[in-house]
Amino acid sequence: VRCWSNIPFITVPLSRAHGKSFAHRSELRHAKRIVVKLGSAVVTRGDECGLALGRLASIVEQVSMLQNQGREMMIVTSGAVAFGKQRLRHEILLSQSVRQALHSGQSQLKDMAIPVLEARACAAAGQSGLMALYEAMFTQYSICAAQILVTNLDFHDEQKRRNLNGTLHELLRMNIVPIINTNDAVVPPPEPNSDLQGVNVISVKDNDSLAARLAVEMKTDLLIVLSDVEGLFDSPPGSDDAKLIDIFYPGDQQSVTFGTKSRVGMGGMEAKVKAALWALQGGTSVVIANGTHPKISGHVITDIVEGKKVGTFFSEVKPAGPTVEQQGEMARAGGRTLAALQPEQRAEIIYRLADLLTDQREEILLANKKDLEEAESKGRLALPLLKRLSLSTSKLNSLAIGLRQIAASSQDSVGRVIRRTRIAKDLDLEQVTVPIGVLLVIFESRPDCLPQVSALAIASGNGLLLKGGKEAAHSNQILHHLVQEALSIHGVKDAVQLVNTREEVEDLCRLDKLIDLIIPRGSSQLVRNIQKAAKGVPVMGHSEGICHVYVDTDASVEKVTRIIRDSKCEYPAACNALETLLIHRDLLRTPLFDQIIDMLRVEQVKIHAGPKFASYLTFSPSEVKSLRTEYGDLECCIEVVDSVQEAVEHIHKYGSSHTDVIITENEKTAEFFLQHVDSACVFWNASTRFSDGYRFGLGAEVGISTSRIHARGPVGIEGLLTTKWLLRGDNHVVSDFSEHGSMKYLHESLPLPQRNTN
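Given the sequence above, the corresponding structure tokens read:
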């Protein structure tokens, strides 16, 4: 037996068809029947007199949207007392014959005493107005709402309980949104409290318990409890070390310290947790979230139903491994330990990983074969993505070579002094390289990315969170196991974490307190989605790889076809593959032009004609839909330009600032192109495919950045470092350098220490 407002009742009164709550947030989108509980702090204004109309309108809009999707929505609401208080205050002022004062000025009103308003009278005055407001708002979305008032005794009487249950089911059957509230006008007098400056408020925990009770009685799939805090914290939200609990499990109460109640009501978070756990036991999933925050209240309900990481989710199923928040903290601590190792020790870890890639080749390829077979059987991957997913002996050998390059070049990457200045006598300043912190690398269909990025993170002393695509799950699992095996030789296994939970990428991007830099590796759509979702965390990368090759009038016949073939056909799925071929107008209908077209046909490259190119042809290939297209396959666009200047302008207008090439024997023309094209990589007489960390001698890359801040082009170890300043003094204070002080600034540049070039 449990209690609802001190009255006992059976724990689970009605059997539930499915009997189980949802185990994961991602399943919440399947919720059919939903109860939304609006706390007093959500419904009332900040002055606690009257309703927060804008917030309420937003909630009604979200509930209506879900109702019109075919879900069955119910609302448990507070607010009658606050609305009634506003009405009664107004009536009292008018009844005290102040109409003349209203015309003569406001000064007389300020001195008038407002009597103490009793909560039940406020509720009686506010119920009808509150319901009229709900009805008006729901009418805007062609939805009907119905009011149900209940008291504690209604749940104590078996017949009344059954009547209530039947009424609610009938309303839901007719597509009506029931709006339920405690009948505060007839409840016993509450204990006095000072929440509303003279107004005794019905304890808000009554509505928490009411919502939980109704959710279980009605076999509801989801209960959303909206309050004025983000969710459940492990300690009072205002305290320094308070952390939002993403998922709360039964039995975790011991790890939580409850603070004071909300600004309105008596229940507080402890009452919400008790109600949530009771509902969870009855088979209803529960989320406690903030319904007052102006940045999220407009979509908090729909976000929860979509499975986004909002508030605290109550679940009976504990994951086998750590949560992503715990993994982030482990990566942070492990990264700091990693950064404190000697350079030789970090290099030793990477050398060991390179050896493991070749020693464990058969196990890796077997796991990769499983991924390929599953992807092909499900038919969910396009051919370019299947190619990226595939591993081979040659790929693993190349990976091992690249990792050894990283190890060899990483000896003085962390802690390298890049500037020394003597500020004053015995006051020396140094700027040194340090790790960025914790990196989140999100990649799809690229298992070879995992050891590359891990090696770069190890070399730069960064903690690392890896989120791979599910299509490469088997490959990623064994590769991550090898990374941790290599890290274990110096006790820093936790520095690199593979996220295997059902975390949505959008939710990972919001972990701004755990992650310092996000690096997406995948399709342009993935990168754009991450750039849009990232809140407060910088994103390094490029959304598209629209690479150009411009063939000048002075181009060498021998070089043109080789460079174009390599740029387009060597690996068409790569982000540094040729997508648009620009040809000088004077080369049309020449033997060189014919050779280019013949080579592309032999290589089975589908050609799309740009608008100008199409105008020169009687029978042209299909005209390109957009000049900003990344094909990622054996396709390319051909366009005609009149000069190198026009080629540069075309690249600036339609390119993605990734990699662009000129083929010419004219040095002056080439230098103009190199200096004027504003891209991360600009080449002369070389394939676009050279835009790669391994080929640049960086060993590997975490990606290619087209941004203009911090790192640009292939990003290796240097791009994963930032700096800090070290000042060494001897009892120095700023006042000594004032106009009448005893010291003067020198600001002398000092020589840098010798770099280790071995």
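The longest strand covers residues 427-435. Try to locate this feature in the token string yourself.
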